[in-house]
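Query form — protein Tol-pal system-associated acyl-CoA thioesterase

QUESTION: What is the three-dimensional structure of this chain?
INPUT:
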Amino acid sequence: MPEYSLPVRVYIEDTDAGGIVYYVNYLKYMERARTELMRTLGYDKPALLDGGRLLVVHSANTRYLAPATLDDALQVTAEISKLARTFVVFRQRIFRNGQQLTEAEIKVACVLQEGMKPAALPADVHAKLKQYQHPQSGPDA
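ANSWER: The structure tokens for Tol-pal system-associated acyl-CoA thioesterase are given below.
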């Protein structure tokens, strides 16, 4: 399955005093893309899973390649580079007119709401996420 892609517009509140998108807002755009990807898979509240489980960001490795500015039309993508029993790693990129501005690897863990201990992804979630796994990423870990 191809990368999931979400269109995003840059607004004044997204920019810093220099007129470029403030670095943390790229992470917000990526969060929106992951959330909307999960919505397309049928999850209305994507961070809340059955059985008292939550999806939480474990880590983010981000590279900023070029700045976005006020009123830019962006495309924010998400695909799965690794799908394991208790976590998923998303490869995410942000583009403006085909030019890549940002890339990131975001690890999202499944935890029990009670105690925040690692938990297995529900089988249905795992199966649906597998649709967005990059074909060259190899088998599940």
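ADDITIONAL NOTE: The beta strands are 4-9, 48-49, 53-64, 73-83, 87-96, 99-112.
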